[in-house]
């Protein structure tokens, strides 16, 4: 067998998974949690890698870390290799026991308190030896993790056009107002009636915010967003306090002081089960088929 071009590769290779996680997340604590190791162990691996290469790979950025120029170069050249190696190990390991394995599963911030846990509880009863690593994030973050292999499957609303997806259903969007709001007793409201209302909404990067802007534009106005927030429970709480109105999916748990009013026309989003383009393990395929089989139930 030909020798490696540099003797350091045998020392560097075991450290690259730690580097890849820290580089992708920009946060040492979260990377350690993702890898399931103590933060001190992860920090030692990163220092060992820097010593082996003779360059600094990270620099402080507030409470996070950022890559140096050398770190960006190394990450660009190795991240695909780490994903391919992770995929290969998962596939080979799963072939030894198709009833076990790990599935990295993501779901959106608008789902979770009821629907996702109940579905996963059913799956766990059917496949108790399959482990699930769960990630909850907004749509673009989930899509990025599916594309680069950090997630195997994700429920997304809606599914991105560039990834394989199965339609699971549709998420209805309606107007939510405080119980004392002038529209709280209405059976239905036209979107154009909201032209003078203050809105509480997600930041512009969120799909639901882009939908809000698009729907309001079609109704002839630009929404006056007075509060922007990423967290949906807090968003609903702000609406319940009378600080604005919002276009949202129904909450999975009752929210005191919040009233939903249907909006004239079609305002909904497709719920998709998204998978990556890498070869799925039997465990991943089992969860995918389980979730797909629930369509129409």
Layout: helices, strands, pairs:
Elements: H1 9-12, H2 16-25, H3 28-35, H4 39-53, E1 58-61, E2 64-67, H5 69-96, E3 101-108, H6 115-126, E4 130-137, H7 139-147, E5 153-156, E6 165-178, E7 198-201, H8 207-218, E8 224-228, H9 232-240, E9 246-249, E10 258-261, E11 268-275, H10 282-292
Parallel strand pairs: 3-4, 3-5, 7-8
Antiparallel strand pairs: 1-2, 5-11, 6-9, 6-10, 6-11
Helix pairs in contact: 2-3, 2-5, 3-4
Low-confidence runs of at least 5 consecutive residues: none
- According to CATH, the fold-level topology of the largest domain is D-Maltodextrin-Binding Protein, domain 2
Beta-strand content estimate? 15-25%
Sketch the major β-sheet: 7 strands, mixed
Spell the H/E element sequence.
HHHHEEHEHEHEEEHEHEEEH
User: What is the strand tally?
Assistant: 11
Family: Belongs to the LysR transcriptional regulatory family.
Protein name: LysR family transcriptional regulator
InterPro entries: LysR_HTH_N, LysR_subst-bd, WH-like_DNA-bd_sf, WH_DNA-bd_sf
Domain HTH lysR-type: 15-68
